[in-house]
Write a structure and sequence with these properties.
The complex is a heterodimer of chains A (about 425) and B (about 325). By secondary structure, chain A is mainly alpha-helical. Among the domains of chain A are: about 55 residues, no CATH class; about 230 residues, MetI-like fold. Chain A has 19 helices and 3 strands. Chain A has a 3-stranded antiparallel sheet with strand order 2-1-3. The two termini of chain A are about 55 Å apart. Chain B is mainly α. Chain B has 2 domains: about 70 residues, no CATH class; about 240 residues, MetI-like fold, CATH 1.10.3720. Chain B has 13 helices and 2 strands; from the N terminus they run αααββαααααααααα. In chain B, strand 1 and strand 2 form a beta hairpin. The longest helix of chain B has about 40 residues. The N terminus of chain B is likely disordered. The chains are: A mainly alpha (about 425), B mainly alpha (about 325). At the A-B interface, helix 2, helix 10, helix 11, helix 12 and helix 14 of A face helix 2, helix 4, helix 5, helix 6 and helix 7 of B.
């Protein structure tokens, strides 16, 4: 053994120079390995910074000044009061005429608890934010904040506020950041996505089936395939311009709902946005669908043909059921893209200030990303807080969609 | 009795065989109406994408022609002022800021993305991959408007604290470009990793057998073998950066300015389209036509880049086996 080892050793380059050569090459390898690893970890750091930065704005102290001190209005905290007690508070603290106007608009008996509660806040307490702080400041500089509030805003109350809350989800848009919510934006996004899927799913799957099962390798079909690959690389704002001209302007009678008897004035409606989104996600859906169909083994098709099935019977009963998990996953990925997409919606003309819920496909609407864009662009710091909260809502939506995709994939692949 | 029955059976057999001789069973493909309708629908689905492309070309083309009737192409490509109020329509300031933000983004995305791809494909253990890959995927799934928020609320203050409050504008190309780079890292890393993983194992084994270190194998053997896919990834990344809208719309500024200083505010092509079309726009105005001329320029740029990428892959692909 020893002799063999020595034989091998003598065959290898020896001496100080070669040892130094090997050592330096190894050192270089180690250095670069660290560089490669840190490049990968850079992504992790960027993601955590992004999340931290959003969370930092979602929670924090707020200095609020009330027109009437909540403690003088009632001896119990307001949110523990019953509806009748709240109405009494309202009656007691408002001028009679103003109260009667409210009663005429909609009788107090018909208003829900939360509506009355909102009225008390809006008409009696009239809170105003004087200054807001981020989570980091609230956590580490509580003493400084207290001192600042005591000297600058002696009248104000310091409250720890979570900008994201159930009322943030359920109240419509408002120009006052304290009372603004994402209800209309959320509903707008959901309507838009639902209609997008309605159009995009059958067409996307149909095109994928055509390209994988029917298309022969000729010039025409190659052009279609190249074209789809090219479309996947077209910037989303170009789709927005296409939607603006085709769906909003040219097809205005349809997209405004005029020929269906639901006129909304112009074509800047949910349907127009959905159709634009459909064109945007179709290439992604088709490419993913093709991959899913391609993954179905050929033997399955041949067995089906062997039993005398026709082409469509084979596709419908054997190819599609097996490709479905892949198709679903691809669809969900495409939908997540559509939910976060902002630029085409701006061009197609989603409005930013909509206070009524969208009531159908021909309604004017706003969407979550549009709302985020709008709030981010405002210089006042309060809007950064609600922009961050809306981002949390959007990200939670996207994460749950992706979780559904993972669950679907696992369940179907176990069965298969 | 027995005879009669057999005769009866025989006669029946004869009649069936007679029927078969009159209408012989055909093995030819039968026309099936249902199948043809379905196939027709599927063909329509496939062809719809062609209509999309044709639609884009017609829409951008016709509105641009309306624009170029009023503004000469020469002015459009040489004027360094874009100011519709005083009838100055030169795309150069918009183009310059698009190129500047994209270049900054590429300085971040290309080296980082490629390094991450090399790590994931050549170094990472299965466990490390299972943690790091999903992180990059999440990063790729974050909507661009969120990155815009990140650029404005995090990157800009950071740049201000590093380079000085007075030197950095609130809206600036640098922060938009840097964040855009972060956004594009996952695209580069996943496409490049696919290219590297496609290189056969035997090549690596051969290099190790000759005494190469892991780094030397990765850089001198695997990387050259997968170079076509990597360059394709780079080109797609550039095209993505050029077409990116929300980050620049939020963070890069809302005024077309001809400047090479990345800390200045300057509107990009996409940012300008978003801002102009976001307002109440009269369809008859030259403002409206002008965004289509910009859109056409943008479309041709990205289309050209994507075609280059596809051609590169086809030309330089190394085929093993």
């Amino acid at each position: 053994m020893t002799t063999l080892n020595e034989d091998v050793k003598s065959g290898l380059p020896q001496g100080e120079a070669s040892r130094r050569n090997v050592a330096s090459r190894r050192r270089k390898g180690a250095i670069w390995r660290t560089i490669f690893l840190s490049a990968t970890i850079f992504g992790l750091i960027a993601l955590s910074l992004l999340i931290y930065n959003v969370a930092n704005e979602v929670f924090g102290y707020v200095a609020i000044e009330y027109a009437v001190d909540p403690a003088t209005v009632s001896d119990k905290p307001l949110d523990e009061l019953s509806k009748d007690e709240l109405v009494t508070v309202l009656q007691g603290n408002m001028r009679k005429n103003a109260f009667r106007t409210l009663e005429n608009e909609k009788p107090m008996a018909n208003r829900s608890d939360s509506e009355v509660y909102d009225l008390v806040i809006e008409r009696v307490l009239k809170p105003q934010t004087l200054e807001t702080w981020t989570l980091r400041d609230s956590w580490f500089n509580k003493a400084a904040i207290d001192a600042q509030v005591a000297s600058d805003f002696p009248e104000a109350k310091l409250e720890f506020r979570s900008w994201i809350s159930t009322s943030f989800l359920t109240t419509p848009m408002s120009s006052d950041p304290l009372r603004a919510g994402v209800r209309t934006a959320l509903l707008g996004s959901l309507w838009m996505i639902a209609i997008t899927i309605l159009f995009a799913f059958p067409i996307g799957v149909g095109a994928a089936i055509y390209l994988e099962e029917y298309a022969t390798d000729n010039r025409f079909n190659r052009i279609i395939q190249t074209n789809i690959n090219n479309l996947a690389g077209v910037p989303s704002i170009i789709y927005g311009m296409l939607g603006l001209v085709i769906f909003v302007r040219t097809l205005e009678p349809i997209t405004s709902g005029r020929i269906f008897g639901a006129d909304s004035g112009n074509g800047r409606t949910i349907v127009a946005a959905s159709l634009t989104m459909m064109l945007l996600i179709l290439p992604i859906m088709i490419i993913n669908g093709q991959e899913a169909i391609r993954a179905v083994p050929l033997s399955l098709r041949q067995a089906s043909y062997g039993l005398g099935a026709t082409k469509w019977q084979t596709i419908w009963h054997h190819v599609l059921p097996n490709a479905l998990p892949g198709i679903f996953t691809g669809t969900i990925l495409a939908i997540s893209r559509a939910i976060g997409e902002t630029a085409p919606l701006i061009v197609v003309g989603a409005s930013t200030f909509i206070v009524t819920d969208p009531d159908g496909p021909f309604a004017k609407f706003t969407a979550l990303p549009i709302q985020i864009y709008n709030w981010t662009s405002r210089p006042q710091p309060e809007f950064a807080h609600i922009a961050a909260s809306a981002i949390v809502v959007l990200l939670v939506m996207l994460l749950s969609l992706n979780a559904i995709a993972v669950v679907l994939r696992n369940r179907f692949s176990k069965r298969g | 009795m027995d005879d009669k029955v057999s005769i009866g059976m025989d006669s029946r057999r004869i009649t069936t065989s007679q029927r078969e001789t009159t209408r012989p069973f055909s093995l030819k493909k039968q026309p099936r109406l249902g199948e043809s309708i379905i196939q027709g629908f599927l063909l329509f689905c496939g062809v719809l994408s062609m209509f999309t492309t044709i639609g884009i070309v017609i829409v951008l083309g016709s509105e641009s022609i309306a624009f170029f009737r009023q503004v000469s192409i020469v002015e459009f490509v040489t004027n360094t002022v874009w100011s519709p109020q005083i009838d100055e329509f030169g795309i150069l300031p918009l183009l310059l800021s698009t190129l500047l933000t994209s270049t900054i983004a590429m300085f971040i995305a290309l080296p980082t993305g490629l390094a991450a791809a090399i790590y994931l494909s050549e170094y990472a253990s299965r466990r490390a991959r299972s943690i790091l890959k999903p992180v990059l995927e999440v990063l790729a799934g974050v909507p661009t408007v969120v990155y815009g928020y990140f650029a404005l609320k995090f990157m800009t203050p950071l740049l201000k604290s590093v380079f000085g409050e007075a030197n950095v504008n609130i809206y600036n190309m640098a922060s938009a470009g840097l964040v855009m780079g972060i956004m594009i890292i996952p695209l580069v890393s996943s496409m490049s990793e696919d290219a590297l993983s496609a290189v056969p194992r035997t090549l690596r084994e051969g290099a190790y057998g000759l005494g190469a270190t892991r780094l030397e194998t990765a850089i001198k053997v695997v990387l050259p073998a997968g170079i076509s896919g990597i360059i394709a990834a780079f080109v797609v990344a550039i095209s993505r950066a050029v077409g990116e809208t929300m980050i620049v719309a939020v963070a890069a500024g809302a005024k077309p300015t001809f400047t090479f200083n990345p800390f200045e505010a300057a509107e990009t092509m996409t940012g300008h389209i978003a801002r102009i079309s976001g307002g109440d726009l009269s369809y008859a105005s030259i403002d409206y036509n002008s965004i289509f001329a910009i859109g056409l320029t943008l479309f041709l740029m990205t289309l050209g880049l994507n075609m280059i990428s596809r051609r590169l892959v086809r030309r330089f692909r190394e085929v093993y086996e």
